[in-house]
């Protein structure tokens, strides 16, 4: 039934796409990028109902003043910018290694076919947990601390994962520890990088 599950996410995306034109633009987008003050206030009223939004509007105006000299780049401009190549390469290698690492570990763990759907479900739940957890703590700790802590936690988990894979022939229960460590790696990746 994987095809039904896959088509369900496509159905949700299609519904979102159909209803998107009926929603107003984001007030920060209208003010900061389009410089449309009236549209920004109108969007605030549409999104939040009638009320006085001068405090929020003033905050956006302050943000606009701070970012006045900053140029907003599109994706192609970011890819052409040489100063971000190290970050892009790091993220690309991390994403590729994450995909390959997960495949190899599930293969190495010799999991029974009946368990594989539960492992896939566990991966999805791990991603969901990391998104919820990250969005609730990012303002408290800041991006820099989450990045550094996430990378350190991922390194520790990978060391433990390597040890569990090396010893999995002696101790069969370590195969399942490897799967749990993959879940923890996904959560650490989602919280940090």
Automatic annotation (TrEMBL):
Membrane topology summary: Multi-pass membrane protein
Predominant place of localization: membrane
Keywords: Membrane, Signal, Transmembrane, Transmembrane helix
InterPro entries cross-referenced by the UniProt entry: GLUT, MFS_dom, MFS_sugar_transport-like, MFS_trans_sf
Highest taxon of the lineage: Eukaryota
Residue ranges of the TM segments: 115-138, 144-161, 173-192
GO MF entry, a single one: D-glucose transmembrane transporter activity
GO CC field: plasma membrane
Compartments reported by the entry: Membrane
Pfam families in the record: Sugar_tr
Signal peptide annotation: 1-17
SUPFAM superfamilies noted in UniProt: MFS general substrate transporter (SSF103473)
GO BP, sorted A to Z: D-glucose import; dehydroascorbic acid transport
Sequence ranges assigned to domain Major facilitator superfamily (MFS) profile in this UniProt record: 1-193
PANTHER family: MAJOR FACILITATOR SUPERFAMILY (MFS) PROFILE DOMAIN-CONTAINING PROTEIN (PTHR23503:SF54), SOLUTE CARRIER FAMILY 2 (PTHR23503)
Protein name: GTR9 protein
Native source species: Certhia brachydactyla (short-toed tree-creeper)
Species classification: Eukaryota, Metazoa, Chordata, Craniata, Vertebrata
């Amino acid at each position: 039934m994987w095809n039904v599950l896959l088509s369900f996410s496509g159905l949700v995306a299609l519904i979102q796409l159909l209803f998107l034109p009926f929603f107003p633009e984001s007030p920060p987008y209208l003010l900061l990028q389009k410089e449309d003050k009236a549209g920004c206030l109108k969007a605030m009223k549409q999104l939040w109902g009638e009320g006085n939004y001068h405090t929020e509007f003033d905050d956006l105006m302050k943000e606009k003043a701070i970012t006045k000299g900053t140029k907003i780049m599109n994706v192609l401009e970011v890819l052409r910018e040489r100063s971000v190549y190290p970050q892009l390469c790091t993220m690309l290698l991390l994403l590729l290694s994450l995909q390959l690492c997960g495949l190899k570990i599930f293969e190495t763990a010799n999991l029974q076919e009946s368990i594989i759907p539960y492992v896939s479900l566990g991966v999805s739940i791990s991603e969901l947990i990391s998104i919820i957890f990250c969005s609730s703590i990012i303002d408290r700790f800041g991006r820099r601390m989450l990045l550094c802590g996430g990378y350190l936690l991922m390194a520790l988990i990978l060391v433990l994962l390597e040890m569990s894979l090396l010893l999995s022939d002696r101790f069969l229960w370590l195969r399942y520890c490897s799967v749990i460590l993959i879940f923890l790696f996904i959560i650490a990746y989602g919280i940090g990088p």
